[in-house]
Amino acid sequence: MTDFAALLQPDLGQPAHRLHLLRKDDLDGWLRGQPERVRAAVAAQRFEAKPGEFAMLPGDGADDWEAALGLPAKPGPWDIAPAVAKLPAGTYRAAPAIAPLAGLGWLLAQHRFERYRLSPDPQPERVLIVTDVARIEETVRLAQAVALVRDLVDTPASDMGPADLVAAAQQAAAGCGAELTVTDGKALAEGYPMIHAVGRAATADRAPRLIELDWGNPDHPRLAIIGKGVCFDSGGLDIKPSSGMRLMKKDMGGAAHAIALARLVMEARLPVRLHMLVPAVENAVSAASFRPGDILASRNGVTVEIGNTDAEGRLILADALTRALEGEPDLIVDFATLTGAARVALGPDLPALFSNDDSLAADLLAAADASGDPLWRLPLWQPYAEMLKSDLADIGNAADGPFAGAVTAALFLNRFVPDGTPWAHLDTFAWMPAARPGRPRGGEALGLMAVWEMLRRRFG
């Protein structure tokens, strides 16, 4: 992984090129204080300080140059990232001093996933020196968490099966004093029947399992973090077309978010009793596949009629939610690449937020705004629970029609969460379909920073 700590350094007065961060309304006043050579360079490059605009500025000598970057009225984590791709290697000092969020964008703009390249492209290092020394470590940790999500999601399914998710959780727990437990085989089949049913068609080396991590003081509030870990989703017997299967390596994106968030919680030593759960499966096709029309028992005894084997994520999450609730948590957050319907409604950038607790939802939306990691709340519209009715079982796993797919999926999960336990469900895409400054095409943490900011405010 990129050495982010080397790219964000405290300002000790070391030599550095100045990076002027300007809003459009500030440009004229700033120009009046600049020498003629700078004003001429700004005019020649038609720099107007619009968000993302960039200009190189001459100094007194050949090596004494500066640069300017346009910012929006309310800068976020990615607004300084456009400069990174345009600046040569070197050390830079921003003026005015940047907020920690901007430092995050500076770091992540230099992250690369090059595990599968025979000859990785050498990347110039751009070092940013900052005055807010107290926030450097926190910014680096957050960048590492986002990069971890990206790397796990970008890894192809051939190298990211259930056992590899176990290894990722073990690595996240390393050095933190956490206890890791893996349930598989007969114990999984008997204790977590829906996790087992979804994953049982896979080969033996990709057998399903439930990964659990426990950390922290038992006297602290209990926090459960759950991540959907479908390492590849063929759709099962309701098989996806090839176009729908192309990106299904990212169907463990919820697990990647959960593992990265758990690492953040432990590294910051947040005063919580952490319980992370990742149901890890591959939804494969074989004679052992669960079938449309099957009725599955869940861990808490609720029976589920299978209307669609491609609605498998909610099944494994239901068993994980039941397990989490056995610990009597004060708060549950789950991440899942759950429905295409959420993407149709909100597009790739906005995770859909569902919650049974208005106060928790408000805290998450406020944290999303503060962190520059947007969320959009959708309703747990109870009348739509009728769409999940089954003639034979307690509930069906999928509605018959095309309406409100993200809502009905969340309502299915809500069936396994009792009133009185605050719960938030993030239906996230975990993917950038097109590259943007600081965010390459591929795996992406969407919702991670917002949830972390909420947790930091609540418990930090």
TrEMBL record:
The keyword Hydrolase is assigned to this record: yes
Q: Which Pfam families match?
A: Peptidase_M17, Peptidase_M17_N_1
| Domain annotation Cytosol aminopeptidase: ranges | 308-315
PROSITE patterns reported for this sequence? CYTOSOL_AP (PS00631)
Q: Which GO terms describe its molecular function?
A: aminopeptidase activity
Q: Which UniProt keywords apply?
A: Aminopeptidase, Hydrolase, Manganese, Protease
Q: Which residues form a coiled coil?
A: none
The entry assigns this protein to a family as follows:
Belongs to the peptidase M17 family.
> What is the protein name given in its UniProt record?
Leucyl aminopeptidase family protein
To which species is this protein native?
Answer: Sphingomonas quercus
